[in-house]
TrEMBL record:
<dbReference type="Pfam" id="PF00056">
    <property type="entry name" value="Ldh_1_N"/>
</dbReference>
<feature type="binding site">
    <location>
        <position position="105"/>
    </location>
    <ligand>
        <name>NAD(+)</name>
    </ligand>
</feature>
<keyword id="KW-0560">Oxidoreductase</keyword>
<dbReference type="InterPro" id="IPR001236">
    <property type="entry name" value="Lactate/malate_DH_N"/>
</dbReference>
<feature type="domain" description="Lactate/malate dehydrogenase N-terminal">
    <location>
        <begin position="6"/>
        <end position="145"/>
    </location>
</feature>
<feature type="active site" description="Proton acceptor">
    <location>
        <position position="187"/>
    </location>
</feature>
<keyword id="KW-0520">NAD</keyword>
<dbReference type="GO" id="GO:0006108">
    <property type="term" value="P:malate metabolic process"/>
</dbReference>
<feature type="binding site">
    <location>
        <begin position="129"/>
        <end position="131"/>
    </location>
    <ligand>
        <name>NAD(+)</name>
    </ligand>
</feature>
<dbReference type="InterPro" id="IPR036291">
    <property type="entry name" value="NAD(P)-bd_dom_sf"/>
</dbReference>
<feature type="binding site">
    <location>
        <position position="112"/>
    </location>
    <ligand>
        <name>NAD(+)</name>
    </ligand>
</feature>
<dbReference type="InterPro" id="IPR001557">
    <property type="entry name" value="L-lactate/malate_DH"/>
</dbReference>
<comment type="similarity">
    <text>Belongs to the LDH/MDH superfamily. MDH type 2 family.</text>
</comment>
<feature type="binding site">
    <location>
        <position position="98"/>
    </location>
    <ligand>
        <name>substrate</name>
    </ligand>
</feature>
<feature type="binding site">
    <location>
        <position position="162"/>
    </location>
    <ligand>
        <name>substrate</name>
    </ligand>
</feature>
<dbReference type="InterPro" id="IPR001252">
    <property type="entry name" value="Malate_DH_AS"/>
</dbReference>
<dbReference type="InterPro" id="IPR010945">
    <property type="entry name" value="Malate_DH_type2"/>
</dbReference>
Length: 328
């Protein structure tokens, strides 16, 4: 048996945490032969609830779970971390201005970036789930100068999976028939789910569907506003599906994308597809050997160009706002 992988989860007592931790401990994050040690970071008021979750984790007697540490201390949480899932964030409350939201989250993701820089393992991989995820990842990354920029990512895999599910229903095909889905831009209502490069059983998805009206006025808004629809129906925001997407994101990053397919991840832009360098924006990526690469050479038509640019413009605004607040 190998040494356990240290997996840090922030916001562990929250609803995504509750759906996430059991799947990590059961081996679904890294595979059925990789032991894990969990580090749960919470704010002091939520430590007791995290302890309750840890009791339940104990009670599952997961053979791969090598231990659980619960803490409100950043150094303890990130010490030797190999994987960090940054889930805890400050949600937008009624009447809150965007400036206040970004500032509150800066207060969380700046010190976490610093702690990752100082204490994490050399092979640290970071996934930011807490919203605004792309910009929170940008903040954390800019306070971790010694960690390679490609280790900081944000989650658009839930949007990616939602897009696959919607297409599967529309086309009447199983999800396994769908490949090369892409989410571009920000994890927000401006995101662009792209069917022009997606494939259904090897054929172009937009052509197979052949319904531009559905694509523009149904598919795109349904995927982009799915989070709100879940809240409306469930009375609470997406939790199990978000946790499932976080598992998928890390599993794919570590184990690779299958031949002939790719995934969506928000990663630090190298300027590809006209996305300004340094922004954390979602792209089609392939993964291999624990590294991701942006898929190159896709043709972007005028429709897609406009959608990508609109979402990227929002990311630029968020970046400029956190810059003005001195958070990056
Ligand atoms: P909850 O409010 O249930 O849980 C959040 C937890 O984070 C709480 O237990 C809180 O005590 C903790 N927390 C707050 N500040 C912290 C800090 N500084 N350090 C450690 N822990 C801290 O929210 P939940 O439903 O679990 O959602 C978590 C985040 O995921 C939210 O920001 C949410 O907006 C975001 N989401 C992101 C998605 C994505 O696709 N990227 C989709 C799902 C979800 O909406």
């Amino acid at each position: 048996t190998s040494t356990p992988v240290n997996v840090t989860v922030t916001g562990a007592a929250g609803q995504i945490g509750y759906a996430l931790l059991f799947r990590i401990a059961s081996g679904q994050l890294l595979g059925p032969d990789v032991p894990v040690r969990l580090r749960l970071l919470e704010i002091p008021q939520a430590i007791k609830a995290a302890e309750g979750t840890a009791m339940e984790l104990d009670d599952c007697a997961f053979p791969l779970l090598a231990g659980i540490d619960i803490t409100d201390d950043l150094k303890t949480a990130f010490d030797g971390a190999n994987i960090a899932l940054l889930v805890g964030a400050r949600p937008r409350t009624k009447g809150m201005e965007r400036r206040d939201l970004l500032e509150a989250n800066g207060g969380i993701f700046k010190p976490q970036g610093e702690a990752i820089n100082a204490h994490a393992a050399d092979d640290i991989k970071v996934l930011v789930v807490g919203n605004p995820a792309n910009t929170n990842a940008l903040i954390a990354r800019s306070h971790a100068p010694d960690v390679p920029a490609d280790r900081f990512t944000a989650m658009t895999r839930l949007d990616h999976n939602r897009a696959i599910a919607q297409l599967s229903k529309k086309a009447g095909v199983p999800v396994s028939s769908i490949k090369k889905m892409t989410i571009w831009g920000n994890h927000s209502a401006t995101q662009y789910p792209d069917l022009f490069h997606a494939e259904i059983d090897g054929r172009n998805a937009a052509e197979v569907v052949g319904d531009q009206e559905w694509l523009e006025n149904d598919f795109i808004p349904t995927v982009a506003k799915r989070g709100a629809a879940i809240i409306e129906a469930r009375g609470a925001s997406s939790a199990a599906s978000a946790a499932s997407a976080a598992i998928d994101h890390i599993h794919t990053w570590v184990n690779g994308t299958p031949e002939g397919d790719w995934t969506s991840m928000a990663v630090v832009s190298d300027g590809s597809y006209g996305v300004p360098e340094g922004l954390v924006s979602s792209f089609p990526v392939t993964c291999s050997g624990g590294k991701w690469e942006i898929v190159q050479g896709l043709e972007i038509d005028e429709f897609s160009r406009g959608k990508i640019d609109a979402s990227v413009a929002e990311l630029v605004e968020e970046r400029d706002a956190v810059r003005n607040l001195g958070l990056i």
